[in-house]
Structure formats: C-alpha cells, structure tokens
Amino acid sequence: MRNNTSDYPLYIGLMSGTSLDGVDGVLVASPPDGSASGLTLASAHIPFSASARAELMALQFPGENEIHREAMAANMLVQHYAACVDELLALTDQTPQSIRGIGVHGQTIRHRPESGYTRQTNNPALLAELTGIDVVADFRSRDIAAGGQGAPLVPAFHQALFASTTEARVVANIGGMSNISVLGSDGRVIGFDTGPGNVLMDAWVALHHGKSYDTAGAWAAGGHEVDALLNTLRSEDFFALPPPKSTGRDLFDAAWLAAKLAPFPMLQPCDVQATLAAFTATTLADAIADHGQNAKAVYVCGGGAYNTHLMQRLRQALVSRKQGAAVYTTEALGVSPNHVEALAFAWLAHRHVLRQPGNLPSVTGAKGLRILGALYPA
Length: 378
Description:
The protein has about 375 residues and is of the alpha/beta class.
C-alpha cells in the first residue's frame, strides 16, 4: 500500500476468542474504500485474570443466575476492551476523536445456528461510553437471521487481504477452534470450521499442569499418539457434515473429551496431549485435502501458529494425504498470526460504516450478502 495514509480513517479491532487468553487489539489506518490493505499502527494484548477466565468459561454452560452473571461478566469484559483501547491510543498518541470506530466481536458463550441464534457476551454501549468512540458489535446475528451459520466470518477478510490471482491458497486459523478459508485464484472462496483448535489441548494441560497452554507443544511432543483414541475422537459426527458448518464449545468441551477418554482409563496424560494435537492437525488436514486440493500454500494464523509441534504435525498430516501445499504462518504474507482476527473486526467495522457487506454466503450459507453489525454511537 502507499506510504501516505494521512487521509485513511483509523479503526480499532478487538478480539477475545475461544481460547480465553485475553483481548487482542489493533489500531489500523484503513483505506477509505473499505479494502483490507490497511496499515497496522499498533497492537496490544490485555490478558484475562484467572478469575475472569473462569467466569467466562463457566458461562459456556447453563448455570444458576446466569443472566445476571452474564451481564456482570460483560461489564468486566468491556473493562478489558477499554484498557486495550487506552493502550492502543497511548502507543500511537491518538485521541478518541481521531478514531472512526471500534469493531469488537465479544466473547462467544453460545453458538447455536441450528436454533437460529448466537450469543456473544458484550456491552458495546458501555464500551462506547468508556472510550468516547463509536462501537460496532454483534456481527454474527445478521448472517444467522439470513439463514447462515454466522461463522466463520474471517474468510471474507482472508479473501480481501490474502487472495492471489496466480495461486490457490488456504488460510487456516487455529484459535480455540479451527477454521479454513480456501481462496481460489479465480476468486471463489470456501470456508468453514474444521473442529477443535487449541481448546482441548489447553483444557488438558490446565488440568494436569495448571498452565493456560502447552508452550510450543513441548508436552505433546514428549508423548506418543494413541491410534485408538485418535480414531474415537475423529468419529464425532461433526466431521462428516458438509460445509457450511460451524462449531464451538457447545460441542467440543471438557465433558465431551471426558466421555471420549472413558474407555481409555490407563493412558498417560502426555500421550493424551500428543493425541489431542494429532486430532487438531489431522482434522484440519482432512478439510484442506478435501476442499483445497489445488492450494499451493497453507498460511496459519491464530495461537496455533506458535505451537511448533502442532505445525509440524499438520505438515506431516498433509503429506500423508498427498496434499503438497507448503505450510507457513501468515507472517510470510506480512501479517502477524495473532493480529489477523482483530484486524478482521476492524475491517468489518469499517465495512459497516460504509454500508458494505461483510459476509460470504458461500461460506456461511446465508441467503445473500448482508451488512453485519450494530452501531453504538459515542
């Protein structure tokens, strides 16, 4: 993009994903036409405390007094969002008046498109009040109202930012859940959730080591994959469904894992972790081999891009499926893997302001293109 961005509106994107590690934020100079080739001026991360993470995790499941608890959790979450905004402004010497809008995803606690709804905990009105900046939120609901899955939303951004006219590419986002965007050189896009990303590995290492994640996949690398368990995990009906499809903790949670582990009471914990890494890698590779056969490269973003063992296991799984695409992170395309989703929501906010659609019906199954999000003016 050109160096002079003085006439580019500034947007902030905020993302807190299913890994529940905290809030990622970016401040972007966005092209006036709403294209994705913006310039990232700053990034920030605000971690969740153990208590905040525990409360957001608890809200994933029905519980006593949950309406009140969700409202209080939303207010707590917005305090984290506001802190991230403050840090971004301080890093760039910007004022709230200079920011055109904030795009914020919220924290998904229910995703039930088959029942016609999705729920992202958030209080965008409070965020607008605390920051003095217009806020655009609730991006998934409009797509679901139009008959779509409401997820994944990032393939539209992946297409706008990463597509090539000379080669087919796959962008694989490995967050709490995994999803892929197959970007054809002819402009066609396929995208869907492929299954768990880090969510089960994170839960297992937390249970046995009290850590929020397995650093670089070192614990998994020291274990041995158990074929019988891997086959049991892969037998879940979700994997046989054709796209469009999406999933989340509503299916793949600790209770689901416990049920799958019940026939294997004597396994070493490190071997379970190794098998969970293989589960993420092989289901992702299945999706790429089935739907991205012509792809020359796979670019990984999300927290999983930093899991050395998982990345190597993904490469092995693709080779075994005779899918010859090279595997990189999105750093190879000039974008940090942990910034991609926050950038997507800054872009979606700008699209909303311009009254431009933000979904891809070929991905979500919606009846058509829709303008996503709801605006909360400062």
